[in-house]
Amino acid sequence: MKSKIDSVFYRAEIYFSAYKLMALGLIIALVSIFMLIQTSDYVQAGGLNVVDNAAFAPRLIYTVLLILGILIFIQELLRNKALRKEILNSAVAKETVAGNQKSLIVLGSILLFILLMTQIGFILSSIIYLISNMIIMNSKASRNVKMYAIIAVIVAVVVYFCFKEFIYVNLPIGALFKAVLGR
Q1: pTM to 2 decimal places
Q2: Nearest by Cα to 73 from 36, 31, 28
């Protein structure tokens, strides 16, 4: 069963590797078109030339982005057929799959960090987040959980202190501690 799951994930990674830049080019082009349409609502001042208009800079930027998005899409479309066949037989692709699995796990831990921050507060959720990511990113042979815990506690407390004392931003203490403290 595990080999079937790995095979499915491997094939999905192949297609992701082959099509990710095409998708990026398409997204950039579509967002640029949408933003160009939005610039039509900008106020036009009478008597000004094209450069003095408020819409000139955004239109220039979005036009350049549109052109670049189309170029990325076309370049990847032309390169895609040969690349996909090469990737299927490549040993590098298997390492990429393992790296992308770690990336997906880290992305999930970021989402969990955001959800936990409101429940248990910034400090505890940061400690959990930092320890888990240090464990994920290091190999089993080089893991030192005690050191990770020490680093995570120091970093979380220092960041909380800096935000509170220097930037004057109160980070969440969490619903759990609000109930305990009666706030």
Answers
A1: 0.51
A2: 28
